Amino acid sequence: MVAALIVLSAAGCSSQAPSSNPQDEDHFAGTNPQIIGRHIYACDDGAKITVDFLVDGLTIEMRSSTGGKPARLTAPGQGLRYIGDRITADATGGQMTINRQGYAAQACRRI
Length: 111
Fold this sequence. Notes:
It is built from 1 helix and 8 strands. It is mainly beta.
């Protein structure tokens, strides 16, 4: 039983493996030339957020570990707030604060 849990948790940690879902294909590092980096954040509410940084340096794509369509956010300049459709994100150092319309702010730290 313990060995099965270890195998399952190790399988869930691989962010480099291609997805069986073609819609997710562009969101794995190495499969989309627009992605230049990836950070994973753990949030105070227990959520994990994956953030892909795109080649223009001003655009990110965020998605939660629970799945769903990634949200694309763009900043008007370096170091400024990322803005998307009913969502904003402020990233400073290893911290990110995500604000979604109608929800409390989500504080996250890079892991």
